[in-house]
Structures are given as C-alpha cells and as structure tokens.
Amino acid sequence: MPKLKTNPINQAIFAGLATTTACLLYGGLQAVNFFPQIAITSTILFFIIFRSVAQGGSIFHPAPLVALVLLWGLAISPLASIVWEKFILYAPKNIEWEPWLIHTSWIYTACAIALLTGILLGSDNNLEPLPAWEVNRSMLPVVSLAFLTFTLLVQAYIFVSFGGVYGYLVEWTEQKESFKGLGSIFMLAEAFPILLLISFVLFTDREKVRERIWLVYGLLIAFFLLKLLFGGFRGSRSNTIWGIFWAAGIIHLVYFKLKLRHYLIGTAFLMAFMVSYAVYKSFGVEAFSGEYTVEDSGRFDGNPIASILLEDFSRSTVHAYILHEYFDSDSYNVKLGATYLNSLFKVMPWMDNPFPDSKNTAGAELFYGRTIDPVLSYGRIRNSRVFGLYGEGLLNFGPALPILLFIGAGMLIGKIDSFCLRLKAEDPRTLLIPFIANGCLVLILSDSDNLVFFIMKNGFMAFLMIFLISIRPKPITSMTPS
Hints:
65% of the residues lie in helices and 1% in strands. It contains 21 helices and 2 strands. Keywords: Membrane, Transmembrane, Transmembrane helix.
C-alpha cells in the first residue's frame, strides 16, 4: 500500500478536499452552488501538480505552474467574484452575474478534465535523461559578447533617441504614441538582462556561486533593476514580472532549491509591485513625485489585491459576460479561427494580413453588441481585455468547442513538461525551462496574439544564443552486419 505522501492521487484528493472545505467555510451559502465544481476541478489540478513534482518537476516547470495558477483561475475565482462582489470594471452593461458565473464554473470543470486528459495523452512515460547539449567554450565568449553588446547598443540608441533615460520616461508619460512601431527594436534591446544572467551562469563556477548566497540574492536584485530599465519603465508590467520569474527559476534550477519562505516573499513582492506599478502606468514619471495614490489611478475597484487576482490571474468574469452576450445576442457571427490566423500573420509585418478579424474586433463585437467591419477598423480598435484560451475559442467557435482546445493544450503541455523533466542539470537548455513554463501559462490564460508576442519578444534572443553556443550530441546509429 503506497504511503499517502508519495501517492499523487491521494495527495490530490486530500488537497482538493481541503481547498473545497476552505471555500465552503469562507463563502458560506454562496459557495454551495460551486461545491462540486471546486471539488472536482481543484482535485484534478492538484493531481497534475503532484504528478509532475513526483517526477522531479517544480513550480518552474510547465505542468505544475499552469495547474497552480489555474487552481485560482478555474476552481476558485468564480466563487471569489461572487463573495467579493467584484465583476468587470466598466462593464458595458450589468448582468445577473451569479447564474452566469455558476455556468462558467461548470465549463471550467469540463476544461480541467480536458486539460488532464491532454496532459496524460501528451506525457512521455520514458523519463530517461536526454543526451545533454554541451556549452561550446570556444564560441561562448564570442557569441555572448556579441549578443550583449548588440542589445545594449540598441537600448542606448532608444534612450538617445528620446533624449536620455529621463527624456524616455517623460516621452512615455506624455506621448505614448511615439513608441508605436518600435516593437522590433524593443524586442532586441529588452533581451539584455536575461542574456546577461544566462551568460553569468555559463561563465561562472556553479559550486563557487552556490557557496556565496549573498551573490545569488544580489543577482536577483540587479536583474530586477535591469528589467525596469530595459522595458519596465515603458509601462510593461508583465515584462518585469515574468522576467523575475525566469531569473528565480534559473536560481532554483541551477544554484539551490527555493524554499517556502522564498515563495511567500516573492508572492508578497509580486502583489506590492503590481499595485504600485498601477500608479506609474497611470501617471508616468509624475508618479515619483509622491502626489498620487493607488486610488488616484482609477485602475482598481476597492481592494487592489482582489482586483489583481480576478483580473490578471482569472478570466471568469470576462467569460461569464461573453457567455451571457453570446446567448443574448442573435447578431454575433463566430470567426471560425480567423483571430488565430490574424495573430500568426502579425509575425510577418511585411505582408498584408489577409485575416482582418482580430480578437480585438471580435471581442468588441460581442462585448458591445455591435457589428464591426474588420477591414475598415483594422488597427484602430484597441482592447485591453484578455479572453484566454476558452474566451478566444468562444469568439471563434461558440461556447462548447473551446473545451476541446484544452485537450490540445494539455497534450502540448504534457509533452513539453516531459521534455523539460528529461533535461540534465548541465544542459544549457535547462536555463530556458522557466520561460517555457511561462509560455504554457500564457497559452491558457492569454490570447493567441499575446502568445505570439510573448514568444518573439521575450524568448527569441535567448533561444538563439543558447542554440549558437551549444554543441549538440551526434545521433547514435546502430550498425548491423550485412
């Protein structure tokens, strides 16, 4: 009989029951209608976590990270929205939220089942270590110096173009439209901090760095400051947050395993940063004057932490609203995959996009109940709402078929998670695991255009550098006598 602590199924059942009980105690009578959904969904997601961890995974691996965030996003957030009475800020109209959030939670349960099915289908039972790539020590100095110099010069060019660092901040505050069309340049420049960290890891002796824990903490602080300078002050909150996640993941995988206190400190820092950054995003460089508060930003309705949890780490209210609008409207036409193709063609700016239907135009149509000509409005519709894998699927195929997308996403996540688990510690590709895990989360929580942008902007340069400085093992061929 396997012990409770070593059996992922038993662990998941226990954790799922504990989560469900806590939600019932906190939510009271309002939680009754969410009881079975929370119980099933949380147990499934805990199983995904414990299964991967038992195989050597961590929060910085794809399956555990996705499942951990979805514990909130799929299992708990619909109930939390009801209990806290927090729905969509500036919703076009008010709807009867509770029944639609209950419907949404049942859909989420189906999505969790589909996700688990996909992960089990996609996972590799063979977890034998892969042949490791090796660092080409003769190429490393040349490639690393070239990449670091190039990205640093591009960032210097950006600062000079706007009159220095302060001029850059002022321009972003007063004339944000000046930054339009510079995405490719930002993609190159803002890779500098992670390229520098990767270079440091590859150049230095891991054992010696591990003995100097203050140096590791100093690395993380320096990385955070560089991320602010290289893109963070451009209003890109996610650029900084996910960059720190990547850096923390490298520390965890290379130097020492992070402990509970590190995760608690990191979570507290994350929330504090996201709240305070709202002031900067609203007022720019003037936020440093101390004259403005979080309330002045107008970005939060009441408790800012609750708003962050429900708006940044959940799509439940958005999904509840578009479900209501879909069934309440007879004028919306599903896009049949056009928004995905639109996102794909965005990586080819030299071509006219033959698919003008974007998630922005489709979302605006359903959200505001009006028909929008995607050709006439191309590039003119701005939409800050993120629909997620299920929401964008609904815009394209209606409310039922998107559940099946979670099977496909699960298969991809399962395959990638198995690949990451099979990488040896000395393999330079290990340094990319936190980014890959982050990309899997973006796949579920964000839209197709966000995913394309995330991969190209945040990963392209790092992947290219790792590829160029690596020696790949030659395939083993069996020789049989004729």
